[in-house]
Amino acid sequence: MSVWLPKVRAVDSSAERLLEGLDADQRRVATTFGVPVAVIAGAGTGKTRALTHRIAYGVASGVYSANSVLALTFTTRAAGELRSRLHDLGLTTVQARTFHSAALRQAQYFWPRAYGSELPPVSDERAIMLAAAARKVRLAPESGQLRDLLTEVSWAKVTNVAPADYAQLAESLGREVAGFSAAQVGQVLGGYERVKSERGLIDFDDILLCTVALLSEHSDIAEEVCATYQHLLVDEYQDVSPLQQTLLDLWWGSGTQHCVVGDPAQTIHSFAGASPEFLLGFPARQRGAEVIRLVRDYRSTPEVVAVANRAATRLRIGAVQLEAVAASGPAPQIVAWENDAAEAAGVARWLIERHEAGTRWRDLAVLYRIHAQSPLFEAALAEVQIPFTVRGAEGFYQRGEVRQAITALHRRAVDTPTQQAVPGCRQVLIELGWSPTAPSGQGRVRERWESWSAVLALAEDLADAQPAAELTTFVAELERRAAAEHPLTPDGVTLSTLHAAKGLEWSGVALVGLADGTVPLSLATTAAELAEEARLFYVGITRAERDLMMSWSRSRHSGPGNRQPSRFLEGLTGPASVVPLARRHRAQRVSALSQTCRACGRSLNTGAERKLGRHQDCPASFDEGVHSTLLAWRAREAQQRGLPSYCVFTDATVLAIAERHPRDAAALMAVPGVGRAKFDQFGDAVLEILNVAVD
Predict the structure, then answer these.
(1) Which of 237, 331, 409, 648 could connect to 260 by a Cys-Cys bridge, CB 3.0–4.6 Å?
(2) Which of 169-183, 286-300, 403-417 shows the highest mean pLDDT?
(3) Are residues 383 and 526 in the same domain?
(4) Are residue 403 and residue 551 in the same domain, yes or no?
(5) What's the mean per-residue pLDDT of the chain?
(6) Which 8-state DSSP code applies to residue 254?
(7) What's residue 453's pLDDT?
(8) Which whole number is the average pLDDT over 106-126?
């Protein structure tokens, strides 16, 4: 281990205390100085803790001056988290910023000195300028196409691709914007640059380009910046783009105190220019670099870690082999369902069982590959009154294209009320711009197509149940669902795409829709694209702390299906953890044989029955007055907090409390569905009711 400390001051006890609680590898990160350091940090291994303690220890021991440290990351949320943790460690002057924030600050400060004028204003009207550029080449992109063109603007800049070179490179890399040729996209990109220049503006992506130009062309300014920020630390380094790496090379100059942290197995933004090669190639580029691996996983149970390790090995995604530190938990399951509706209903039951066992709704998540998978699960959760929130998107019925479709369908139903649901819906969607063939590539155009396809799927589901259903019936059903859409709540189950889930964690995670063609996406055909899909799947697994269910369905509708499970699932769990389709309910009964009804002695089969300790139809043993008092209290409490009653306690939990009649805190917390979190909120009031009843 290469540890270097300055000779000018001894390391005092306060600095040493900063190392308490760090494991051996985290301590190496915090104390290795004098050489560049690359930290390969597996999921859940405490990389941010190690990084912030390195800064704190460096300042406390005299290696760092707080004012000469710059910690960099990629999102405002991550930068805020770094600042918060550094503040907790007593560091209030250390700079923790995003790349763009740090670059903008430098460019605005030095631009007048370098070029004799202020840095051009940063415009927030990129879409307007891009639309103007498109019109100049006689193109009229729709809103979805405009958003995809903006993505290509950003990609071209972060990968240093000039508009004139775009067409050739985009075709070789398989980049497409639906409705436009690569040559047309290149023309729009060139026109966009001219529009900005004419208006005297720059955009968000230009911030990094301007700073690179400033430092490259003015060595005196570059030296001043390097002297100011002598110690650079980069979090999530696997997400760095070529342009960001160019800027980093200018920022850290010839210094040797910089440190980068990342996980190549969690590179899931290659489409936006990110590349893990900068992290993996760091030791070769930086002479004498020290590589430290963090492998102790403090997040997930050994059972979840074992699945993650097997996935990493089988899929060859470059992940470290994690070592579990947390206590043991239930075995992850792979579940096959008959169809999509059965999968959504089964996932809802799984969530209720986790909640009844004491897990808060907010500590549960349903993760899927694309946004279009969410309406099925939104409906299933709303049906059983599970609160939820959709991360990174509106609820399905609040999406612009879905509202547009409902409005158009309503008009068509007024004009032709007896038209059949499916052909009527298909005709309306085609008029809006939908086609039976999916648009090439990914992006907003693809997302809109998927949303409209989901609307058509709902019409087909209705026709399956009611073959004679007319368009008016379908529109009424859509409007009913939209009106009854479950209100989004921060205390609910998280519904999220795998991309939006990165960096987060939940006690229980359901990875859903794991059929080939969805995970990995059918669009992923090259080795690089499949590797990205595999890393995305790995990210999903490692979000789970304790409970993990991976599920897929054989078909969209009832009847035989031809879907196959995702190739990524092969070999992940043992036979006992794979619940076959035909034996799903039997497997649930077998797992419950250890619990029997206290009234009749027979096995208990459901979470609610196990909570009560008896079957629902077996004689109860509780005081009706106590039960009524608890229900009345729950109603008042829910009203005061503005929550549904089940968010206080479910009916089954209230009944279990009344039957068990716990007299103290330990006994109350032992009731399934209570636990520490619920006890802290409601325990005193419940015990008062129970003890008054006894007195």
Answers:
(1) 237
(2) 286-300
(3) yes
(4) no
(5) 84
(6) T
(7) 83
(8) 93
DSSP-based three-state secondary structure for 416: coil
Q: What percentage of residues in the chain have a pLDDT greater than 90?
A: 38
Residue 363 domain-assigned? yes
Please indicate, yes or no, whether residues 169 and 273 belong to a single structural domain of this protein.
no
Spatial strand order of the sheet with 506-511 comes to 388-390, 493-497, 364-368, 506-511, 544-553, 333-337, 578-579
User: The domain spanning residue 222 has which CATH number?
Assistant: 3.40.50.300
- Helical (H) or strand (E) element with 465: helix 444-465
| Two tokens, residue 146 | 């405009």
The model's pTM is: 0.71
Residue 617 lies in a domain: no
Tokens for 223? 């030296």
pLDDT at 628 over 80: yes
Residue 477 lies in a domain: yes
Position 104: which residue type? L
- Return the number of other C-beta atoms located less than 10 Å from residue 559's C-beta: 10
Query: Rounded to whole angstroms, how far apart are CA atoms 507 and 358?
Result: 11
Cα distance between residue 617 and residue 609, in whole Å: 10
Both 265 and 341 in one domain: the answer is no
Residue 46 to residue 23: CA distance in whole angstroms: 10
pLDDT tens-digit series, residues 162-199: 899 998 888 777 788 878 888 999 999 999 999 999 99
Mean of pLDDT values over 289-293: 94
| Cβ atoms of residues 200 and 123 within 8 Å | no
- CA 278 from chain centre, in angstroms, equals 23
Q: What share of the chain is helix, strand, coil (3-state, %, to 5)?
A: 55, 10, 35
Whether 379 and 490 map to the same domain: the answer is: yes
- Verify that 18 and 99 share a domain, yes or no: yes
In a domain, 225, yes or no: yes
Measured CA to CA in angstroms, residue 251 lies from 83, 282, 629 at distances of: 21, 16, 67
pLDDT in tens, 525-556: 888 889 999 999 999 999 999 999 999 998 88
pLDDT at position 224 is: 93
Q: Spell out the residues 6+ positions from residue 29 whose beta carbon is closer than 8 angstroms to its own.
A: 37, 39, 50, 51, 53, 54, 259, 261, 292, 294
Name the residue among 99, 55, 93, 59 with its Cα closest to residue 78: 99
The domain boundary, picked from 267, 294, 321, lies at 294
Sequence-distant (6+) residues with CB within 8 A of 366 are: 347, 351, 377, 388, 493, 494, 495, 496, 509, 510, 512
Give dist(CA 245, CA 606) in Å, integer. Answer: 54
The structural domain count of the chain equals 5
Determine the pLDDT at residue 590: 28
Verify that 387 and 511 share a domain, yes or no.
yes
Beta bridge partners of 596: 603
Q: Higher model confidence: residue 619 or residue 511?
A: 511
